[in-house]
Amino acid sequence: MVQATPFLLVLFLALGAHGLSAKKCNLVGRWVNDLGSNMTVTSVNANGVFAGSYHTAVTATSNEIKVSPLQGSMQKAPNQKGQPTFGFTVNWKFSESITVFTGQCFVDDNGKEVLKTMWLLRSHVDDIKNDWKATR
Protein backbone atom coordinates (compact mmCIF):
# COMPACT_ATOMS: atom_id res chain seq x y z
CA MET A 1 0.00 0.00 0.00
CA VAL A 2 2.92 2.35 0.67
CA GLN A 3 3.95 2.20 -3.00
CA ALA A 4 0.46 3.23 -4.13
CA THR A 5 0.46 6.48 -2.11
CA PRO A 6 2.72 8.49 -4.47
CA PHE A 7 0.62 7.38 -7.45
CA LEU A 8 -2.61 8.40 -5.72
CA LEU A 9 -1.11 11.77 -4.79
CA VAL A 10 0.00 12.39 -8.39
CA LEU A 11 -3.41 11.29 -9.66
CA PHE A 12 -5.16 13.58 -7.17
CA LEU A 13 -2.94 16.54 -8.15
CA ALA A 14 -3.59 15.88 -11.83
CA LEU A 15 -7.35 15.69 -11.30
CA GLY A 16 -7.30 18.76 -9.04
CA ALA A 17 -5.28 20.78 -11.55
CA HIS A 18 -7.75 19.84 -14.27
CA GLY A 19 -10.45 21.73 -12.40
CA LEU A 20 -8.42 24.95 -12.33
CA SER A 21 -9.07 27.16 -15.35
CA ALA A 22 -6.45 29.49 -16.75
CA LYS A 23 -7.41 33.14 -17.03
CA LYS A 24 -8.33 34.13 -20.57
CA CYS A 25 -7.59 37.41 -22.28
CA ASN A 26 -10.57 39.62 -22.95
CA LEU A 27 -9.98 42.39 -25.52
CA VAL A 28 -13.07 44.35 -24.44
CA GLY A 29 -12.11 47.35 -22.35
CA ARG A 30 -9.62 50.20 -22.26
CA TRP A 31 -5.93 49.56 -22.97
CA VAL A 32 -3.09 52.07 -22.43
CA ASN A 33 0.39 51.66 -23.91
CA ASP A 34 3.80 52.80 -22.62
CA LEU A 35 3.55 56.09 -24.54
CA GLY A 36 0.12 57.04 -23.19
CA SER A 37 -1.94 56.14 -26.24
CA ASN A 38 -5.19 54.41 -25.39
CA MET A 39 -7.47 52.03 -27.19
CA THR A 40 -11.01 51.11 -26.24
CA VAL A 41 -12.58 47.93 -27.59
CA THR A 42 -16.32 48.19 -27.15
CA SER A 43 -17.41 44.74 -28.32
CA VAL A 44 -16.23 41.42 -29.75
CA ASN A 45 -18.87 39.34 -31.53
CA ALA A 46 -19.12 35.54 -31.73
CA ASN A 47 -16.98 35.52 -34.90
CA GLY A 48 -14.19 37.51 -33.25
CA VAL A 49 -14.96 40.79 -35.04
CA PHE A 50 -14.49 43.85 -32.84
CA ALA A 51 -14.76 47.63 -32.94
CA GLY A 52 -13.72 50.57 -30.85
CA SER A 53 -11.62 53.70 -30.83
CA TYR A 54 -7.96 54.70 -30.59
CA HIS A 55 -6.57 57.93 -29.15
CA THR A 56 -2.88 58.25 -29.94
CA ALA A 57 -0.45 60.22 -27.84
CA VAL A 58 2.16 60.18 -30.61
CA THR A 59 1.94 61.69 -34.08
CA ALA A 60 4.18 63.05 -36.83
CA THR A 61 1.64 65.66 -37.94
CA SER A 62 0.98 69.10 -36.51
CA ASN A 63 -2.78 68.53 -36.81
CA GLU A 64 -4.90 68.31 -33.68
CA ILE A 65 -5.06 64.68 -32.55
CA LYS A 66 -8.57 63.24 -32.65
CA VAL A 67 -10.00 59.97 -31.40
CA SER A 68 -10.16 57.61 -34.39
CA PRO A 69 -12.24 54.49 -35.07
CA LEU A 70 -10.79 51.01 -35.16
CA GLN A 71 -12.07 47.74 -36.57
CA GLY A 72 -10.51 44.36 -36.06
CA SER A 73 -10.69 40.63 -35.86
CA MET A 74 -9.61 38.19 -33.16
CA GLN A 75 -8.72 34.56 -33.81
CA LYS A 76 -11.33 32.28 -32.23
CA ALA A 77 -9.46 28.98 -32.64
CA PRO A 78 -9.93 26.62 -29.68
CA ASN A 79 -6.22 25.79 -29.50
CA GLN A 80 -5.23 29.36 -28.49
CA LYS A 81 -5.88 28.62 -24.81
CA GLY A 82 -7.37 32.04 -24.10
CA GLN A 83 -4.42 34.05 -25.45
CA PRO A 84 -5.73 35.00 -28.90
CA THR A 85 -4.00 36.60 -31.84
CA PHE A 86 -5.72 39.61 -33.36
CA GLY A 87 -5.39 42.42 -35.86
CA PHE A 88 -7.07 45.79 -36.27
CA THR A 89 -7.02 48.88 -38.46
CA VAL A 90 -7.17 52.49 -37.28
CA ASN A 91 -8.46 55.08 -39.75
CA TRP A 92 -6.90 58.28 -38.40
CA LYS A 93 -9.38 61.17 -38.41
CA PHE A 94 -6.69 63.87 -38.25
CA SER A 95 -4.30 62.77 -41.01
CA GLU A 96 -4.31 61.04 -44.37
CA SER A 97 -3.03 57.75 -43.00
CA ILE A 98 -4.11 54.34 -41.78
CA THR A 99 -2.34 52.04 -39.35
CA VAL A 100 -2.71 48.28 -39.08
CA PHE A 101 -1.78 46.49 -35.87
CA THR A 102 -1.27 42.79 -35.30
CA GLY A 103 -0.56 41.07 -32.04
CA GLN A 104 -1.50 38.69 -29.30
CA CYS A 105 -3.19 39.02 -25.92
CA PHE A 106 -1.26 37.32 -23.11
CA VAL A 107 -1.96 36.65 -19.45
CA ASP A 108 1.30 37.09 -17.53
CA ASP A 109 2.42 35.14 -14.44
CA ASN A 110 0.59 37.63 -12.20
CA GLY A 111 -2.71 37.21 -14.06
CA LYS A 112 -2.43 40.59 -15.81
CA GLU A 113 -3.65 40.83 -19.41
CA VAL A 114 -1.01 42.28 -21.75
CA LEU A 115 -1.26 43.09 -25.47
CA LYS A 116 1.91 42.70 -27.54
CA THR A 117 1.60 44.32 -30.96
CA MET A 118 3.46 45.46 -34.05
CA TRP A 119 2.17 48.16 -36.38
CA LEU A 120 2.53 49.39 -39.94
CA LEU A 121 1.49 52.93 -40.87
CA ARG A 122 0.70 54.00 -44.42
CA SER A 123 0.62 57.73 -45.18
CA HIS A 124 -0.73 59.42 -48.27
CA VAL A 125 1.81 60.56 -50.88
CA ASP A 126 1.03 62.64 -53.96
CA ASP A 127 3.04 60.63 -56.45
CA ILE A 128 4.04 56.98 -56.98
CA LYS A 129 7.66 58.15 -57.09
CA ASN A 130 7.34 58.86 -53.37
CA ASP A 131 5.85 55.46 -52.51
CA TRP A 132 9.06 54.44 -50.78
CA LYS A 133 8.54 56.96 -47.98
CA ALA A 134 4.82 56.32 -47.41
CA THR A 135 5.11 53.28 -45.12
CA ARG A 136 6.64 53.12 -41.64
Automatic annotation (TrEMBL):
<dbReference type="InterPro" id="IPR051764">
    <property type="entry name" value="Avidin/Streptavidin-rel"/>
</dbReference>
<keyword id="KW-0092">Biotin</keyword>
<keyword id="KW-0732">Signal</keyword>
<dbReference type="InterPro" id="IPR005468">
    <property type="entry name" value="Avidin/str"/>
</dbReference>
<feature type="disulfide bond">
    <location>
        <begin position="25"/>
        <end position="105"/>
    </location>
</feature>
<keyword id="KW-0964">Secreted</keyword>
<dbReference type="Pfam" id="PF01382">
    <property type="entry name" value="Avidin"/>
</dbReference>
<dbReference type="GO" id="GO:0005576">
    <property type="term" value="C:extracellular region"/>
</dbReference>
<dbReference type="InterPro" id="IPR036896">
    <property type="entry name" value="Avidin-like_sf"/>
</dbReference>
<comment type="subunit">
    <text>Homotetramer.</text>
</comment>
<dbReference type="GO" id="GO:0009374">
    <property type="term" value="F:biotin binding"/>
</dbReference>
<dbReference type="InterPro" id="IPR005469">
    <property type="entry name" value="Avidin"/>
</dbReference>
<comment type="function">
    <text>Forms a strong non-covalent specific complex with biotin.</text>
</comment>
<keyword id="KW-1015">Disulfide bond</keyword>
<comment type="similarity">
    <text>Belongs to the avidin/streptavidin family.</text>
</comment>
<protein>
    <recommendedName>
        <fullName>Avidin</fullName>
    </recommendedName>
</protein>
<keyword id="KW-0325">Glycoprotein</keyword>
<feature type="signal peptide">
    <location>
        <begin position="1"/>
        <end position="22"/>
    </location>
</feature>
